[in-house]
């Protein structure tokens, strides 16, 4: 089961406590089972996300690695973002299989791998978007002051990207440790891949949600919002006080693209993090409607992994031209 499904147990069941979705205390409850068609429609939707995301992100990776003109600092961060999305879509078929089977048949090791990659998807995307926002801020600031950025090199971007991956691995490590296969005592054949916290489980569950909310959303998003606020303020002042243009056409396009990619990410992931706040502050009764909402929120966050390639294609002329050039058939 994907850990992004915050409000749902693996067999769409209620838990002993409304705060303990994804805990080892999930027990079967037929009254919360959804329409059987739902368990077919959802894997189909996930399959579309997987196919589109894998194709699109692989194309982005191929173009950036093969086209010499695409080797820029911003594109290197985009490359890492595409790798993170590709990594997630590669393991999505296992989540699809679990939905169809309605139990976890793949063992303990694969459970830890899948839940870890699912968490990589939560943290890596927002951290690379934060780095891209910092990069845009430095470029805009340097342009406003008519200065160069000698430290902004491709080599420095590679080092920063490596540091981001190391940071994400360290952040996700606790989830890897607690990931495991839970066997329902009432039905030993029904296994679930969940986060198995020690006692008191309710407290550990709340701590894990707060941990994810702060490190995976609140802190990086606040940083991004502050950077863009300062950036817009400086550009506004420059328009008022100078006839010089703050950014040339190419830099404007890249900045707008990064902003739109960020906006789409927030649109897809904000409901997930808001659901965390709701789960931590309220005591909602588990109902089929609530379970349906949780799956919708999960699907929306998954969809973000296949949207970015389309944004690059529509917003980045250099990417579009490089991709078309790669598709050209040349005689040997």
TrEMBL record:
Q: How does it sit in the membrane?
A: Multi-pass membrane protein
Q: Which PANTHER family does the UniProt entry name for this protein?
A: NEUROPEPTIDES B_W RECEPTOR TYPE 2, NEUROPEPTIDES RECEPTOR
One term under GO cellular component: plasma membrane
Keyword presence, Transcription regulation: no
The record's annotation in Pfam families points to: 7tm_1 (PF00001)
InterPro entries for the chain: GPCR_Rhodpsn, GPCR_Rhodpsn_7TM, Neuropept_B/W_rcpt
Protein name stated in the entry:
Neuropeptides B and W receptor 2
The record, for SUPFAM superfamilies, names:
Family A G protein-coupled receptor-like
PROSITE patterns membership: G_PROTEIN_RECEP_F1_1, G_PROTEIN_RECEP_F1_2
Keyword Glycoprotein attributed: yes
Sequence ranges assigned to domain G-protein coupled receptors family 1 profile in this UniProt record: 56-312
Family, according to the entry, reads as follows: Belongs to the G-protein coupled receptor 1 family.
Question: Where's it found, cell-wise?
Answer: Cell membrane
Q: What keywords appear on the UniProt entry?
A: Cell membrane, Disulfide bond, G-protein coupled receptor, Glycoprotein, Membrane, Receptor, Transducer, Transmembrane, Transmembrane helix
Where is it mostly found?
membrane
GO terms (molecular function) for this protein are: neuropeptide binding; neuropeptide receptor activity
Segments crossing the lipid bilayer: 38-65, 77-96, 125-144, 156-183, 210-233, 254-272, 292-315
Q: What organism is recorded for this protein?
A: Paramormyrops kingsleyae
């Amino acid at each position: 089961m994907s850990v992004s499904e915050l409000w749902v147990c693996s067999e769409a069941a209620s838990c002993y406590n409304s705060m303990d979705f994804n805990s080892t205390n999930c027990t079967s409850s037929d009254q919360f089972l959804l329409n059987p068609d739902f368990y077919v429609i959802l894997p189909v939707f996930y399959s579309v996300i997987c196919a589109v995301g894998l194709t699109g992100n692989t194309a982005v990776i191929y173009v950036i690695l093969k086209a010499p003109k695409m080797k820029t600092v911003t594109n290197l961060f985009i490359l890492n973002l595409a790798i993170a999305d590709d990594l997630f879509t590669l393991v999505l078929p296992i989540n699809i299989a679990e939905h169809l089977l309605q139990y976890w048949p793949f063992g303990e090791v694969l459970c830890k791998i899948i839940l870890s990659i699912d968490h990589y998807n939560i943290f890596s995307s927002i951290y690379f978007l934060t780095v891209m926002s910092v990069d845009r801020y430095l470029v805009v600031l340097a342009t406003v002051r008519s200065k160069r950025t000698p430290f902004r090199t491709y080599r420095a971007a590679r080092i920063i990207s490596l540091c981001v991956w190391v940071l994400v691995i360290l952040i996700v490590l606790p989830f890897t440790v607690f990931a495991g296969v839970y066997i329902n005592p009432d039905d030993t054949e029904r296994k679930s891949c969940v986060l198995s916290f020690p006692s008191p489980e309710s407290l550990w569950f709340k701590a894990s949600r707060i941990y994810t909310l702060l490190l995976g959303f609140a802190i990086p998003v606040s940083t991004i919002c502050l950077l863009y606020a300062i950036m817009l303020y400086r550009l506004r002042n420059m328009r008022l006080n100078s006839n010089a243009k703050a950014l040339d056409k190419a830099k404007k396009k890249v900045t707008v693209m990064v902003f739109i990619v960020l906006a789409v990410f927030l649109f897809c992931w904000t409901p997930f993090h808001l659901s965390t706040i709701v789960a931590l502050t309220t005591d909602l009764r588990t109902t089929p409607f609530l379970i349906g909402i949780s799956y919708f929120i999960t699907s929306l966050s998954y969809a973000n992994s296949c949207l970015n390639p389309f944004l690059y294609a529509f917003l980045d002329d250099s990417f579009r031209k490089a991709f078309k050039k790669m598709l050209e058939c040349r005689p040997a």
